[in-house]
Design a protein that fits this description.
eight-stranded mixed beta sheet; single chain; alpha/beta
């Protein structure tokens, strides 16, 4: 049997590795839409943190619904996920988050093994720092475990172990795609330009948003949310708590991403330029989605080259 006959009988599989990056992750929506528009459909999808959420929503058939929500959401809508009385396990309202995942990623009854294509959500085992890949079980629960960023989201108990954000060990899951059978991997790195950059663009707040915050949140929450959504301390002042935490996470993920991509490079790496969007500025989805679409167009020739013989 010739090599061409072998390739026809065993076509190469495309893996899509969707990286972590909090609010910058909305660019995954634009990337997936742009790839599908060009007829490039992944056989395997692996995601870390927000990448797991977007990838899971796509395979469950809810990506358009999720996109409509994020494009229509405001800063105040995002603030509703944060508790007025902060718990010891995290700032995010866990019940509200679970409801959101069931509405916009997948209902409780949807399981990973029933998806139309292979999928894995990457998480970190808190006790030993090893990575865990969820390839079966409830999809929304696996996504929640993958995006359980310490300090914001509570850890998730699965298989008798506590799970936290997968971005701590594998921010761009190329290795996961390969293990699941991908021959060609298109990776999305959301952290390529975040180190050393500061968010200098102040997000606008409408009168309705201000009114909603005043009506629905206590003063302490407003003060906290201000530190979440802006990272603009004076240079001669010590950074605030949230800035110090988020910048530290950015540094860790950037260093791990560089190391892992060097050890197991993807055939194509898409790197949206999103340093101007703060880690938790989820309401700036339209900018992130547009940047994702633009990145695919810029690298379309290379993407077509590596997928030409499939």
């Amino acid at each position: 049997m010739s090599l061409s006959d072998h390739n026809r009988r065993h076509p190469k599989k495309i893996g899509l590795a969707l990286g972590s990056g909090a609010s910058r992750g909305w660019s995954h929506i634009g990337i997936i839409k742009a790839l599908l528009k060009e007829g490039i459909e992944p056989d395997i999808v692996c995601g870390t943190s927000v990448g797991a959420m977007i990838g899971g929503s796509y395979l469950a058939g809810n990506l358009e619904k999720l996109e409509n929500w994020v494009l229509g959401s405001t800063r105040t809508d995002v603030l509703k996920f944060f508790k007025v009385k902060f718990s010891q396990s995290g700032f995010v309202d866990n019940e509200r988050m679970i409801g959101f995942l069931h509405d916009y990623v997948a209902p409780k009854e949807v399981h990973i093994q029933d998806l139309p294509r292979r999928f894995a959500a990457v998480s970190t085992i808190l006790e030993n720092g090893r990575e865990a890949w969820f390839q079966e079980g409830e999809l929304a629960e696996a996504v929640r475990a993958s995006m359980a960023l310490p300090g914001l989201f509570p850890a998730v108990r699965k298989d008798h172990r506590w799970m936290v954000d997968g971005g701590l060990v594998n921010p761009v899951p190329v290795t996961t795609c390969r293990a699941l059978g991908a021959d060609i991997v298109i990776a999305v790195n959301l952290n390529s330009d975040i180190i050393g950059k500061r968010n200098s663009k102040k997000p606008e707040t409408t009168a309705n948003e201000k009114k909603g915050v005043l009506q629905n949140l206590k003063q302490t929450t407003r003060e906290y949310s201000s530190s979440i959504f802006t990272e603009r301390e004076r240079q001669d002042e010590a950074p605030g708590l949230i800035t110090a935490i988020t910048n530290s996470i950015n540094i860790v993920q950037d260093r791990i991403t560089r190391s892992r991509l060097a050890g197991d490079p993807a055939e194509v790496v898409i790197s949206p330029r999103l340093a101007h969007i703060g880690m938790l500025e989820f309401h700036r989805a339209s900018e992130a989605i547009e940047e994702g679409e633009n990145c695919v167009q810029k690298q379309l020739a290379e993407i077509r080259r590596v997928t030409a013989n499939i």
